[in-house]
């Protein structure tokens, strides 16, 4: 291997436990969510728009309430918030198996989202707090790799189970979260609630008043706009160009495979580069160039080449994306900061799915296939420029930023 894995020895047991639960969570989540759409539009006979509403209700009840979830985690402890959130999601996911009425699906979706709102910020904050700062980037990189391995694995599980019956996928996903709930309860050490000074209201207003962090969260909406194209316009585009559903699977698997193979290498190469915000910008720019080049892609090979550029962009951006948040946050509000940062996914991601799909259709109608991809390129440049400027204004992100955030 020849890779520097010394940091793995310095990684506390509790972080290794978190990495394994993250892996399982991704496995359960991605085994269910893609097939839920197929189930709702196929077996249940809903329109795609209606299925989209259920998915966005889940996403919004998660990302919209994550800020509150993070504040609760800071106040009452990360272990408790994770335990509760994982349990609620286990119930929500398993419930999809037994839904018969329309409103049942919405209840299951809201429970699934609510569970995420509780455990996601707590989980991110726990990572940031118990991982020694020197190895944080490596740990976040490994989490990204494991997440992608889980995505590939979940497709195999999802395809196999959907061949039998959707009920089994739903129960499998619920069971995965159920097992995680038990693991966290028995094996995860309690991390003391760090926020004993602020009320929930004060915590929220502290984050909102942190102008720099609010700006960072706003700029990241552009990153998530690009990121969400993986779930929507990229599969559509691949099918339109290659006239094959199989190729959609090949392209999405290749995307994960690139990350699995090269993420740790990329992180290692960029180790000595301290400008985190600029790196996120460069990564976003790579993603947008990869998307823009779809304009000229007329074969599977060219698409794969573009997807590699897109994947490279995520490999540069993702470890820094998660690592930057705790640098803004006072020690006792890390959960609240991660929760608030979720709005960049909630708004940027939802907009990316809705507007991305709409612009793609418009491009086809007006016979300007370059339109959606050019918009992606513009967004990439904007994010890179804004983050670079922000970095220059704050000096090197790190100690200076901590001072600014606290003042």
From TrEMBL:
Membrane topology summary: Multi-pass membrane protein
Residue spans crossing the bilayer: 39-57, 104-130, 142-162, 168-191, 212-234, 246-264, 276-294, 300-322, 334-358, 370-387
Domain of life: Bacteria
Alphabetized UniProt keyword annotations: Cell membrane, Membrane, Transmembrane, Transmembrane helix, Transport
A single GO molecular function term of this UniProt record: transmembrane transporter activity
Pfam families according to UniProt: MFS_1
Listed InterPro entries: MFS (IPR011701), MFS_dom (IPR020846), MFS_trans_sf (IPR036259), MFS_Transporters (IPR050171)
Main location: membrane
Domain (Major facilitator superfamily (MFS) profile): residue spans on this chain: 14-392
Subcellular location: Cell membrane
Keyword Transport carried by entry: yes
Gene Ontology cellular-component terms listed: plasma membrane
UniProt-recorded name of the protein: Conserved hypothetical membrane protein
Organism: Brevibacillus brevis (strain 47 / JCM 6285 / NBRC 100599)
């Amino acid at each position: 291997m020849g890779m520097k894995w010394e940091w793995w020895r310095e990684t506390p047991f509790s972080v290794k436990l978190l990495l394994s639960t993250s892996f399982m969570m991704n496995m359960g989540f991605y085994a269910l969510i893609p097939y839920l759409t197929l189930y709702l539009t196929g077996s249940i006979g809903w329109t795609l728009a209606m299925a989209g509403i259920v998915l966005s209700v889940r996403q919004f009840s998660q990302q919209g309430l994550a800020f509150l979830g993070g504040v609760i985690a800071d106040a009452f402890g990360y272990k408790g918030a994770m335990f509760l959130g994982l349990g609620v999601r286990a119930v929500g996911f398993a419930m999809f198996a037994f839904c018969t009425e329309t409103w049942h699906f919405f209840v299951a979706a809201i429970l699934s989202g609510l569970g995420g709102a509780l455990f996601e910020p707590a989980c991110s904050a726990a990572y940031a707090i118990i991982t020694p700062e020197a190895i944080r980037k490596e740990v976040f990189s490994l989490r990204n790799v494991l997440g992608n391995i889980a995505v590939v694995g979940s497709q195999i599980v999802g395809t196999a189970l959907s061949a039998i019956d959707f009920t089994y996928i739903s129960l499998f996903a619920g069971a995965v979260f159920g097992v995680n709930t038990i693991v966290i309860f028995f094996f995860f050490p309690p991390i003391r609630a760090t926020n004993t000074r602020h009320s929930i209201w004060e915590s929220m207003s502290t984050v909102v008043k942190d102008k720099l962090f609010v700006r960072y969260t706003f700029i990241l909406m552009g990153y998530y706009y690009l990121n969400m194209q993986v779930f929507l316009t990229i599969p559509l585009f691949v099918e339109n160009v290659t006239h094959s559903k199989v190729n959609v699977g090949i392209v999405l698997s290749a995307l994960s495979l690139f990350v699995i193979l090269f993420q740790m290498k990329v992180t290692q190469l960029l180790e000595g580069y301290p400008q985190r915000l600029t790196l996120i910008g460069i990564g976003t720019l790579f993603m947008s160039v990869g998307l823009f080049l779809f304009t000229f892609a007329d074969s599977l090979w060219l698409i794969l080449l573009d997807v590699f550029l897109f994947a490279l962009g995520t490999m540069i951006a993702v470890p820094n994306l998660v690592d930057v948040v705790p640098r803004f946050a006072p020690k006792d509000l890390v959960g609240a900061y991660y929760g608030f940062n979720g709005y960049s996914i909630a708004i940027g991601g939802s907009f990316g799915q809705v507007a991305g799909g709409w612009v793609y259709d418009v491009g086809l109608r007006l016979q300007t296939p370059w339109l959606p991809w050019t918009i992606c390129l513009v967004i990439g440049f904007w994010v890179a420029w804004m983050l670079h400027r922000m970095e220059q204004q704050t000096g090197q992100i790190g100690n200076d930023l901590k001072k600014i955030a606290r003042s």
